[in-house]
Amino acid sequence: MRVLIVEDEPRLAENIARSLRESAGYAVDIAPDGEEGLFLMQSNSYDVVLLDLMLPLLDGKELLSRIRQAGQQTPVLVVTARDDKESVVALLNSGADDYLTKPFDLGELLARTKALVRRGKGQPSPVLIIGDIQLNTVNRTVTRAGKIVTLTAMEYRVLEYLAHRPRAVISKTELLEHLYDYNWEKFSNVIEVYISGLRRKLTDGSTGQFIQTIRGQGYILQD
Ligand code: CA
Questions:
Q1: Which domains are delineated in the chain?
Q2: Whole-structure pTM over 0.70, yes or no?
Q3: Are strands 218-221 and 48-52 parallel, antiparallel or unpaired?
């Protein structure tokens, strides 16, 4: 998953980014002002956006209304210093999906962020079940037929992304866009390496391929 944080306090942005990278395994981009945030949202695909309200150049509320008017459906969690009821109602009415008031607990931010990612993909439960595979997005563990499967951090990220949209064809480009932030160089062959690692670990040889390759299109997770 890939997250955009639009926040003009560098230390706060970095703290949130570190927490999302370490505790959720998300790729994270940071925009220090509203214009940069708008530009990044127009040029990348994010699974969720954390949006501060008081921002230089373009404020959070205006950014939100512009992206919603443009038809963008990315879930947005507004992080606000204002806690008056009226502005919260106005925000939810203008397209925010959830909000959190500063100062907040990082654990709560993480839980709300993950919940928005899931709901954005139509998966309300934090435990994703695909056949005999269970993927727990809270503690990032995977089991197959009740046995723990040990994955690398990147293998987990690939599987988590696929598992949020089972039976959909997901292209390599989409995986690259959602698993790396903009500081990474993107080589499409790395995805193949992770997919083959997942296949090796998730199948016991007797069963069919759990992750199928659709030639020229991408991958599909079957149950
Ligand atoms: Ca601010």
A1: 2-120 (3.40.50.2300), 127-221 (1.10.10.10)
A2: yes
A3: unpaired
